[in-house]
Design a protein that fits this description.
About 35% of the residues lie in helices and about 25% in strands. The chain has helices at about 10-15, 20-35, 110-125, 140-155, 165-175, 185-190, 235-240, 245-255, 255-260, 270, 295-310, and strands spanning about 5, 40, 45-50, 55-65, 70-75, 90-95, 100-105, 135-140, 160-165, 180-185, 195-200, 220, 240-245, 265, 285-290. The two termini are about 20 Å apart. The relative contact order is 0.18. The model has no long low-confidence stretch (mean pLDDT about 95). It binds NADPH dihydro-nicotinamide-adenine-dinucleotide phosphate and 3,4-dihydro-2H-pyrrolium-5-carboxylate (2PC). 3,4-dihydro-2H-pyrrolium-5-carboxylate (2PC) binds near residues 57, 90 and 112. One of its GO terms (cellular component) is cytoplasm. It holds the Pfam family OCD_Mu_crystall.
Length: about 300
Amino acid sequence: MSFVKLISDDFVKNCLEWKTLVPVIEKSLVDISIKNKSTIQPARLFMDIPDKQGLFLAMPSYSENDHALACKLVTSFPQNKSIGIPSVLANILLFDPITGKIKAIVEANRITAWRTAAASAVATKCMHKGSKDILAILGAGTQAESHALALKEMFDFKEVRIWNRTRERAKILASKLPFECTLFESNEECVKDADVICTATYAKEPILQDTWVKEGAHINAIGAGQNHHSELSEALYRKSYLVVDHMESAEKELAGLTQMGIDIKGEIGNYLNSSKTVPEDVTCTIFHNLGIAIEDLVTANFIYNKFTKGQK
Ligand SMILES: NC(=O)C1=CN([C@@H]2O[C@H](COP(=O)(O)OP(=O)(O)OC[C@H]3O[C@@H](n4cnc5c(N)ncnc54)[C@H](OP(=O)(O)O)[C@@H]3O)[C@@H](O)[C@H]2O)C=CC1
Ligand SMILES: O=C([O-])C1=[NH+]CCC1
């Protein structure tokens, strides 16, 4: 196996620049929305490990344009935090698309944090045309951190607010961020008058109610536990315009929502390339950021190219 290159999170950290990643992710979201055979991504395998409250996900994808074949293997064990290990642990296997031979294993904890935040930032830019003064983050883990950093940098919010179930962890996050944040005891108070809200928790019951959200607000829903749509209340979905990253995945992972009669309006790639537009009179917008394999492929490929260039 000596031919397999091992690329660590530390290498990723040193060469992954937020500003470079945004257009790469944006393009991948458009590519996957154009249904042709040059970009392939089935709905991922989503396996519950019930007694551990864990998840195991296998996320294959192929891109002819990027000349890349990949599969991310990712686990999500929320209890890990109590023993000092990240809840979400990921590796991306890159294969030669001609022979199928494995060429690299890219540690993808940082990639997962950043590509998810990049997708939310791109969706926010595209779906939310209103003011961007107040950003509210519900949660204080890895995704909360990458979303706070990415959205603040992209939109320069005047105020960044954080609420977390465990206040101590919200304080730790605030101390790590390179800008001032306001901490809230109550999630309701935190989201009051917010222009953009990100939910990034394992909450099994709604942590965001329709009556708390101001008209015209945009929500990025990131949390994915056993049930992908438990962070937002049913009433909030009913009054909002809902867009996802990948319809085929959403049909599976958001089946609970569609069974309730909640309509998914389209894939974000359709809006990014202007084949669809968000109507002006919508009450709120939601981007359900499920996280998709093609984002991982393009990011890992980008890192791999930097890695191999450095070795020449
Ligand atoms: N869409 C995507 O592409 C991705 C989604 N995710 C999902 O994002 C979410 C966060 O992941 P990550 O940041 O890596 O995880 P972390 O473990 O780093 O953070 C988890 C956060 O969830 C909070 N939380 C846990 N249980 C509850 C609960 N019952 N009610 C309210 N808050 C709760 C934690 O609060 P406390 O500090 O109190 O424990 C903490 O703020 C997960 O659902 C994960 O599956 C992750 C990666 C990619
Ligand atoms: O896309 C992703 O990597 C994940 N989504 C939910 C947990 C991890």
